[in-house]
Amino acid sequence: MEEKKSNDTGFLQYANAKLRENAVWEMVEMHLTSVCPGEAEMFLEIKDKHLNTMGICHGGIIATLADTVMGVALYAMDTAGTTIEMNINFMEPLKKGDRVLAKGRVLRKGKTTAVATGDLWVGDRMVATARATYFIMENVNNQE
To answer: Of 38, 70, 112, 118, which sits most exposed with the smallest number of CB within 10 A?
Structure first.
């Protein structure tokens, strides 16, 4: 595994810039803070635009954050994948001003699929947990 995929500032800046090219990433305003092979951490500050009609964070925003942190953890293993299944448990509602820390970890990477978990925290409270299966599309280092 290449050492470039670490917590070094250069790679984090590169990864955040690359991910910002994606419209969903930019719209939701997620920020990558840590990455190494098989693991990633991101944060999201809940804003008005993330709230549903009940005044709490929309579940789709939380699911997007969980899916993204798990996908970045997989990508840090030089593997691109696409989500084929994901489940999520919402444990507490999130409100405006909450800073959500998402931690993704690849549990297993096979030849065609990978399984990852994503836990979301506000302070010391776990507010959501997810598990996903990804179809492995390509090995990043083998691209021509």
So the answer is: 112
